[in-house]
Amino acid sequence: MGSLLVGGLIFVFLSMATSIGLMVRARLPNHHLNAESKDVIRLATAVVGTLSALALGLLIASAKSSYDNAEVEMRTAAARILLLDRVMAQYGPETDNARQLLRELIEKRLSRGWTAETTDEASGKALGEYQDIEAVQADLRSLAPRDAVQHSLQARALEVSGMLAETHWLLVESGKEGLPWAFLTVLVCWLSLLFATFGLQAPANPTVLSILLVCALSVAGAIFLVSDMANPYVGLIRVSDAPLQFAIERLGKP
Fold first, then answer.
1. Which of 4, 6, 11, 250 suits a disulfide with 220, CB 3.0-4.6 Å?
2. All residues at 6 or more sequence positions from 43 whose CB lies less than 8 Å from its CB, including other chains
3. Residue 216 pLDDT
4. 0.85 surpassed by pTM
5. Would you say 251 and 100 are in contact if contact means Cβ atoms under 8 Å apart?
């Protein structure tokens, strides 16, 4: 589910909860909303408000951690690509085909994106990325080193290409994790309860209603940001592909 849709649905839920609170307020006897009753309601909702704040804080921390990890993975992958290209360049002209395959792999990555769906699946005549990496490794294994230096370079190139393949499969395995939806569902229920009590205690005038709607929009915006950051390779807040752009400019140089 898209982050914008998640944020929009939460805004709708919170607005509906506020409206329900306002409608219930209009039908309750006056003594149900006297000072003592409101004090008890505030004390009860304070507990739920604290739990909601803690839960939202945990979601933000989790999303930020996912985003930071993805950014590190992007930079690490770009560095390994450059390292692999330089190791193959030191080996000699026998690796020209493997270097060209590596460049085509990065060009495909930039054109198709950096998600599990786009990198692992074939698209038309384009192979999945894992097959491109394996083609580079096959070329490296087919080399016939003439001396100890070339043998060492071949081993190093195979090691780095193996790291790139490992990065790909880690992306595939973790690409669909996203937000813990059960956790988010409970949080939305708590927030809806809070906004329902806001409506229950609030006089139905334009100023109060406007403030409650702005608050609902702010909370929905926060959860939108959390949802977007939890999927760091897609959405509005995504990991920059600048490291790959820099890497492709340097690939193939002697």
1. 11
2. none
3. 92
4. no
5. no
